[in-house]
Amino acid sequence: MAADVVLKNVNKVYPNGFHAVYDFNIDIQKGEFIVLCGPSGCGKSTTLRMIAGLEEISSGDLIINGKKVNNVAPKDRDIAMVFQNYALYAHMTVYHNMAFSLTIRKVDPVEIHARVMKAAEVLGLVPYLNRKPKQLSGGQRQRVALGRAIVRDPVVFLLDEPLSNLDAKLRGSMRKELMQLHERLNATFVYVTHDQIEALTLATRIVVMKDGYVQQIATPKEMFDNPENLFVGGFIGTPPMNFLHGMIDNSGIKFIQDGSGIEFELTEHQQEIIGNYIGKNVIMAVRPEFVFIDNANLEKNSKNAFDFKIDYTEYLGAYHLLYGYIGDEALISKVYTRQEITDTEIKACVDMEHVHFFDVETTKRIR
Ligand code: ATP
Known about the structure:
Elements: E1 3-13, E2 19-29, E3 33-37, H1 44-52, E4 59-64, E5 67-68, E6 79-82, H2 94-104, H3 109-123, H4 138-150, E7 156-160, H5 168-185, E8 188-193, H6 196-202, E9 205-210, E10 213-218, H7 220-225, H8 230-235, E11 242-248, E12 254-257, E13 263-265, H9 268-273, E14 281-286, E15 291-292, H10 295-300, E16 305-315, E17 320-326, E18 329-335, E19 345-350, E20 355-359
Parallel strand pairs: 3-8, 3-9, 6-7, 7-8
Antiparallel strand pairs: 1-2, 1-4, 4-5, 9-10, 11-12, 11-14, 12-13, 14-20, 15-19, 16-17, 16-19, 17-18
Helix pairs in contact: 2-3, 2-4, 3-4
The structure holds adenosine-5'-triphosphate.
The site of adenosine-5'-triphosphate has 13 residues, from helix 1.
């Protein structure tokens, strides 16, 4: 399948000399839902704005639909952008907000009407076409902003934190709508968010960025299961991964936690890949989902059990989060039980099949 959007060694240096994006490379296939994700200031909006043509590219190539567009004006790029603040025209009705960009492009009025009505149907906006934006809820306004993009029928939809002005519940339902919309339109989406839940739920592939550098590009599952480095492990997933400091013992079979001396037995696969680290410090990482306290798992993982000192627990309906310590390092466990947990010290274990080791210096996953 042909790539729709290609970024080749794209860099952004702002006029004040600040290097905001370093060597960004990606081939985005037609129909993908790419989510650019990372903490504030990581360069995700800058990247999106370069694709949109709202920021100049300092070096590298941007190709949309087979055509290099570095110097093509935004309006000629076959993209449509949806912003966080909706940017609707307050004095225009929903209908005219959606029709506006086509009107200024002098599209035939019959065609404009057909496209606006089709978009309104797709988005459930037909009953609101004569209202002004201030007569709409936040979710409805966001749908109008999407409608304005849809009528353009672009090759690529660019969305910058489109849900961040909505309350949590509405964000949840808009996520579902966005997913369905993406399927229906079969178009390419590039979406910016700092919210890793949006990234995991919406993306066909996630790009995690930090300080202007791409950290990893992968499917949500791959990103969650096999984070490339400590940053990605800590960023994707809530609560974040647990990181334990320690060393691989001289036989290369065990990880021994610093301070506590608590031992964990490596799986065969881990023993195979850990060769260069025997006798050296590493970081052992385990997601809260794989720290267990139930009898079946304690039996199965009896060699990797330890005393878990619990500071406090959070009850979240279907599961509990247990916050505490293993030795003197913080540990979180996500436990799928509805039973109240009152213990302050409890036997816990980890499933070593779901443990990763990271290099202390490079912070990369050992593989
Ligand atoms: P946020 O989630 O806060 O919007 P972001 O990841 O989208 O963050 P960008 O807006 O891409 O971040 O900004 C990346 C970096 O570039 C930031 O450190 C920002 O301060 C800097 N930056 C943005 N615009 C300019 C500019 N016009 N001149 C200089 N530096 C800028």
